[in-house]
Amino acid sequence: MMVFKVLQLLVLCLVSAVSSTNRTTFVDFVSTCLNGRYQKIKPGPEADLFNQCKPWKDRSCCTQETSEGLHTSEPWLNFNWNHCQQLSPECSKHFIQDLCFYECSPNVGPWLVPVNMKIRNEKFMHVPLCESECTNWWNACKYDFTCLPNWGGGKGFNWTTGQNTCPSWSTCKKFSEIYTSSSNFCETVWNYSWKVVPETEPCMHIWFDGSTGNPNDKIALEKAKEVANSLIG
Ligand SMILES: *[C@@H]1O[C@H](CO)[C@@H](O)[C@H](O)[C@H]1NC(C)=O
Ligand SMILES: *[C@@H]1O[C@H](CO)[C@@H](O)[C@H](O)[C@H]1NC(C)=O
Ligand SMILES: *[C@@H]1O[C@H](CO)[C@@H](O)[C@H](O)[C@H]1NC(C)=O
Q1: Of 231, 220, 222, 229, nearest in space to 33 by CA
Q2: Residue limits of the Folate receptor-like domain (predicted)?
Q3: Hey, is 30 helix, strand or coil?
Q4: pLDDT-derived band at 8, boundaries 50, 70, 90
Q5: How far apart are the C-alpha atoms of 170 and 156, rounded to whole Å?
Q6: Mutational test site, ligand 1, from 22, 27, 31, 59, max ligand atoms within 8 Å of CB
């Protein structure tokens, strides 16, 4: 995995340096989108983005249509969050914000690893999520219900009907009975896409005010430098 990532970055840098006149700063190298069903090839401005995805509109990997779709078409990417019962509105909001990050964030480049799925060829892993973000998400969801801790790739669910339902051997329980802590929830639910870290460490925000820029730009940049340094050193 690591070797692939390093090679990928190296190739990216070389290709960029040779074939593109637009890439002038290191920021451009981390300005990439996850290779998935709905993400754009490269991040760029959108006239507007729907509702909760708005903060990403100045530099986005999602189109306006995608940003609206993820709010309004249930289930998005065919995965039903309401497999036990309807999630509470507050909890849904947090999952929608997480989806906005998934579809729109231009800052996941340094954490991408290849996967072989219908809906994407890459996923991000161990992206540092600020502890406060996770705590808020957890507090909104801890009394909601699920039957499986790890929703990653929909694995383990029963897909007989074409949509994920709880396998017959499982039981719907409160999140607070399924997960051992807020961090355990945030990290497990999407198969370790997130790694919860204290605010004192560089970490991502999924809720932010886009009018003052994207606070995650510098987090991705730092990580990219770290990866680049590991190439040299
Ligand atoms: C460079 O930027 C121009 C104008 O913004 C754009 O039309 C062109 O597609 C870009 N080229 C690449 C390789 O990104
Ligand atoms: C979680 O990710 C690992 C590594 O990519 C993969 O092997 C595993 O199948 C995934 N598990 C689930 C439940 O998606
Ligand atoms: C999966 O769902 C189908 C249709 O509802 C059901 O007949 C089957 O027993 C289920 N299997 C498991 C393992 O849940």
Answers
A1: 220
A2: 32-204
A3: coil
A4: low
A5: 10
A6: 22
Residue type for 81, please?
A: W
How is residue 72 written in tokens? 């309004």
Phi/psi of residue 146, nearest 5 degrees: -150, 170
Reduced to 3 states (helix: H, G, I; strand: E, B; else coil), residue 114 is strand
Parallel, antiparallel or unpaired: strands 112-114 and 194-197: unpaired
What is the pLDDT at residue 29?
58
Residue 5: predicted pLDDT: 52
Give the pLDDT score at 9: 54
Distance CA 62, CA 44 (A): 9
Please state the pTM of the whole predicted model: 0.84
CA distance 168 to 89: 27
**Nearest of 217, 216, 214, 181 to residue 196 by alpha carbon:** 181
| Closest ligand 2 atom to 151 CA | 13
Closest ligand to Cα 44 = 1
Q: State pLDDT tens for residues 82-141.
A: 999 999 999 999 999 999 999 999 999 889 888 888 888 899 999 999 999 999 999 999
Residue tagged 């290849």 (tokens)? 114
